[in-house]
Automatic annotation (TrEMBL):
Pfam families membership: Glyco_hydro_88
Glycosyltransferase recorded as keyword: no
Record keywords: Hydrolase, Signal
Protein name: Glycoside hydrolase family 88 protein
GO biological process: carbohydrate metabolic process
InterPro entries attached to this UniProt entry: 6-hairpin_glycosidase_sf, 6hp_glycosidase-like_sf, Glyco_hydro_88, PolySaccharide_Degr_Enz
Domain of life: Bacteria
Listed PANTHER family: UNSATURATED RHAMNOGALACTURONAN HYDROLASE (EUROFUNG)
Signal sequence, start to end: 1-20
């Protein structure tokens, strides 16, 4: 009886937190508002291009653009993705086995599913044919093909999406192998977070231990955001009866449970997850990917709505506080390999916009 009362009280408190979060912020959760904010951020970013179009940064951005197209159903967005693909000749980046150079191909497959033009995915197929027969050179910190956690957003969604699209499970099997290698190398089973690479692992004898100022392990917010975004994109595509699906679900749920405990009072996450005081500004790209991943979990029944909805709503309010008057997504940490990069309201990057667009594409579904 006492346990039932305690459970009821906990649910009531969470429901109250959700209602309190919405009070005064109702507009932020209206479909028209969300669409307008997504359109404003997208328009600003398309008018301020950055990096080579096949770059991993644009891979993340155009993943958001594809989500915006599905949400806004605007023909001009379709044309923007098509123009990007044409400019890239629908090809991955030049590095055969580097996950970053495949991230942009997520959008190629999305376009192929709409337009049905095989040329949109043929260069990807050709590259992966070579990839699968080319031995990977293991050296230094490169302990496996995907030796840094960000890779789990870049390539796994491409392999799984292509495999399902072509009904060819060789790509799904390749993803299982390479994803598991990265998991075994970098996933901290106590913290339920990923080290960026082995330089940030405490149990790696070959490297010197790097700690945060407060003595905690270094877990980079954006890096773990990439992973959660990648897990969502894998689970979106992976067949329900795929033999290893339970592994991805468990990894996703463990990370979700840990991430919500690290959310800060403003609804955002700090650049270093375990040392928020050293990086006081809420960081847009990591926070955007968490908002996207958690909202998707609610929308698809993997996460308990009573528990996670207040977190997601608080995060969405926080994310909107980072949008500048011209539509630009501010407070985005610059490119780097760890949290130690300063950023401000003036800091922007294309992947920050991509994360915001992905988040909006799931937030808008919460009331459906």
């Amino acid at each position: 009886m006492k346990k039932l009362v305690a459970t009821f009280l906990a649910i009531s408190l969470l429901a109250g937190a959700s209602m309190a979060q919405r009070k005064g912020n109702e507009e932020l959760f209206e479909a028209l508002y969300i669409k307008n904010k997504m359109k404003g951020a997208l328009d600003w970013q398309l008018h301020h291009p950055k990096h080579k179009l096949y770059d991993w940064t644009n891979g993340a951005f155009y993943a958001g653009v594809s989500a915006a197209y599905q949400t806004l159903e605007n023909e001009n967005i379709y044309k923007a993705i098509y123009a990007m693909g044409e400019a890239n000749r629908w090809s991955p980046g030049p590095r055969l086995q580097h996950a970053d150079d495949y991230a942009i191909c997520q959008s190629y497959i999305d376009m192929y599913q709409v337009a049905g033009e095989k040329r949109m995915i043929q260069p990807l197929i050709d590259s992966l044919d070579k990839f699968m027969i080319t031995p990977y050179k293991i050296e230094g910190i490169h302990k496996c093909t995907w030796w840094w956690c960000d890779a789990l957003f870049m390539a796994p969604p491409v392999l799984v999406k292509l495999g399902v699209t072509l009904d060819d499970d060789q790509y799904l099997k390749l993803n299982d192998k390479l994803f598991r290698e990265c998991y075994d190398l970098l996933y901290d089973k106590e913290e339920h977070l990923y080290a960026r690479d082995i330089r940030y692992k405490w149990d790696e004898p070959e490297v010197e231990v790097i700690k945060e100022a407060n003595g905690q392990k270094i877990f980079w917010s954006r890096g773990n955001g990439w992973v959660m975004g990648g897990l969502v994109k894998v689970l979106q595509e992976l067949p329900e009866d795929w033999p290893t699906r339970a592994f991805y679900v468990q990894n996703y749920k463990e990370m979700a449970e840990r991430i919500i405990a690290l959310q800060q009072e403003d609804g955002l996450w700090r650049a270093s997850l375990l040392d928020p005081n050293s990086y006081p500004g809420g960081e847009a790209s990591g926070s955007g990917f968490y908002t996207y991943a958690l909202a998707w979990g609610i929308n698809n029944g993997l996460l308990d709505k009573d528990k996670y909805l207040p977190v997601v709503e608080k995060a969405w309010v926080g994310l909107n506080s980072l949008i500048q008057p011209d539509g630009r997504v501010g407070w985005v940490q610059p490119i780097g390999a760890d949290p130690r990069k300063n950023f401000s309201a003036e800091s922007w990057e294309v992947y920050g916009t991509g994360a915001f667009l992905l988040a909006g594409s799931e937030i808008i579904k919460l009331e459906e």
